Amino acid sequence: MTEDSVASASKVKSSNPRIVNLSWAVSLFGTAVGAGILFLPINAGASGVWPLLIVTLLIAPMTYFSHRALARFVCKSPRQGEDITVVAEDYFGTGVGRAITWLYFLAIYPIVLIYGVGITNTVESLLENQIGVAAPPRWILSGVLIGLMMLVMILGETLMLIVTQALVYPLILALFGISLYLIPSWDLSGLQGDTSFSPGGFLLAVWLIIPVLVFAFNHSPAISQFSLAMQRQHGERSAQEASKTLIITTGLLVVFTMFFVWSCVLALGMDGLSDAREANIPVLSHLANVFDAPVISYMGPAIAIAAIFSSFFGHYLGAAEGAAGIARGLMPEKAEKWGPKRLAAGVAVFMFLTTWGVAVVNPSILGLIESLSGPVIASILYIMPMIAIYKVEALKPFRKAYSNYFVIVMGVIAIGGIFLGFFN
C-alpha cells in the first residue's frame, strides 16, 4: 500500500461508518453504470418485454449474491489488508493464484482502454456538435481527459469517493429524469404477447440477455479495494458491513438502471431498438433523433461523460491491482526493491500510456472487448468465490447458504450465454 493510500485510509477510517458505507455503495454503483448503459436497452430489449421481465426479476439476486461472495473472498482472508491477487495465491497456491491474477487483469484492463476511447469520442462530439467549436487534436484531447481521470485515482481513495459521488448523483437524477420523460411515449402493445411465441425461443432469448445484464451490472473491479476499505473501517465485521453496502448498490442498480432500460424499450418498441442497433449508436442518440428533443441531445453527452468517468475509477482500481500482482509475480525481487509506492507509480505510467495510445488510434472494438471480457468476468465473479467457499477453511461458515447453488447455476448460465452469443 502506498503512503498516499495509507493517509487516505486513515481519513476514511475517522469518518462516520455509515457515511463511508454509503460512499462506497454509490462508488460501486458508478463502477457498474459505465458507458455500456447507453447500449444496454438496445441489447437487453432486443427480444421483447417478456424475456426482459424474467431477467429483471433475476438480476437483483444474481448481482447481490455474486458480489457478496467476492467481497467475502477478500474480507475473510487470514491475511488482512491484502488485495484479491495476494488472497488468491494464499487460497489456491502460487500457480493457480497467478493464473487468476492474469485473468483478473485481462478481464478489466481492456475495458479501461475502451473508456479512454469513449471519453475522447464523447467530448469531441460534444464540442463539435453541441457547443459548436473545433475540437483540439485527438492526441491532445485524449491525453488531457485520460490524465484528468487518472489524476483523481493517483491522489487517493478519499478524493476518488468524493468525485465519484459528485458524478453519480447527477447521473442517477439524469437517468431517472429521462426515464420519466419517456413515459408518455410508452407503447404497451408489446405486453399483449407475441403470436409467434415458443418455449424454446423464449428460453433462448432469456439466456442471451443474462450475460448482457451481468456485464452491465458488474462492479467486481472495485470489490477488492472496497473489501479492504471495509476491513480498515469495521475490522472483524467487514464481511457483514460489506454485505449491507452491497444491498444498497444492488437496489440502486435495479431501480434506476432497469427503470431506464424499461422506459427506453417501451418508448421505442422493437422496431426502434432494431433501428438503433443497425445504426450502431447509443440509445440516447437514437432517442434524440426520434423525438427531436433538445433536452435529450444535451443531456446525452453529459450522462455519457459522467458514466464513463465514474466507471473508469472502479475499473482502473481493478486493472492497476492486477497489473501490480503480475509485476510481483514476474519480477518479485525488483517489485520488492521498488516498494509499493514506486510499483504503483510504474503501473500508473503503463496504464496512462497504453490507454492514451489506444484512444489516439480510436479502434471500434467495444463489442469485441465485452465478448472477450465477459466469460472471464463471469468466471471470476460467479465461479471462483464458490470454489473458494468449498475449498478454503476460512470461508467454511458460508458453505451452507442456499444462495451458493443459485450463484453457481447462474454463473454457468451466464458463461454459456456469452459463448452462445458468438453463434447466434
From TrEMBL:
It is a multi-pass membrane protein. Signal peptide: none annotated. The chain crosses the membrane at residues 21-42, 48-66, 99-119, 139-159, 166-184, 204-224, 245-268, 295-318, 343-366, 372-390, 402-423. The keyword Transmembrane applies. It is found in: Cell inner membrane. Its main location: membrane. The keyword Cell inner membrane applies. InterPro entries: Amino_acid_transport_2. Gene3D superfamilies: Amino acid/polyamine transporter I. GO terms for cellular component: plasma membrane. Keywords: Cell inner membrane, Cell membrane, Membrane, Transmembrane, Transmembrane helix, Transport. One of its GO terms (biological process) is amino acid transmembrane transport. This is Serine transporter. It comes from Propioniferax innocua.
